[in-house]
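tokens incoming
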């Protein structure tokens, strides 16, 4: 497992840690962020609600795994525009894909930073990203102008 962390850091993630999935904080009311359609994908993508399943169904799927590799990247945009925010998400998700190509893991579940290809985001799973970051000794929300993105790779 330490190999996963060292590979992630060598690839360019600002943080990487492994926690148990039992440390993930499930908050069903977070599904409202999907329902508010802030990302514009609600009802449009199969990895997004309502097509991906209910919050409880997503949580049951997540609990089939014991371990969670948490990946963090930091992005300091010159301008805080929606385009820059989306670009940061894309770069983070592409970095996650590169890591998965290197690790060659089987039977995994990926929670991406926003919906990404065949992966649902943490909001769809109703996971508290701030609590997850704290469990990993990482910062989720800071007052330093840095935008932090997270993805998680669940495995047994």
């Amino acid at each position: 497992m330490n190999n996963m962390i060292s590979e992630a850091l060598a690839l360019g993630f600002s943080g990487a840690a492994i926690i148990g999935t039992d440390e993930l904080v499930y908050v069903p009311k977070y599904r409202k962020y999907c329902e508010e359609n802030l990302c514009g994908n609600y009802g449009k993508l199969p990895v997004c609600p309502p097509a991906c399943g209910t919050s409880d169904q997503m949580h049951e799927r997540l609990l089939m795994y014991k371990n969670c590799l948490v990946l963090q990247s930091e992005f300091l945009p010159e301008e805080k525009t929606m385009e820059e925010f989306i670009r940061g998400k894309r770069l983070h998700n592409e970095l996650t894909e590169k890591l998965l190509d290197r690790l060659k893991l089987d039977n995994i579940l990926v929670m991406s930073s926003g919906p990404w290809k065949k992966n649902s985001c943490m909001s769809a799973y109703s996971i508290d990203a701030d609590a997850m970051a704290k469990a990993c000794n990482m910062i989720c929300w800071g007052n330093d102008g840095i935008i932090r993105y997270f993805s998680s790779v669940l495995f047994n």
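note: The longest strand covers residues 67-75.
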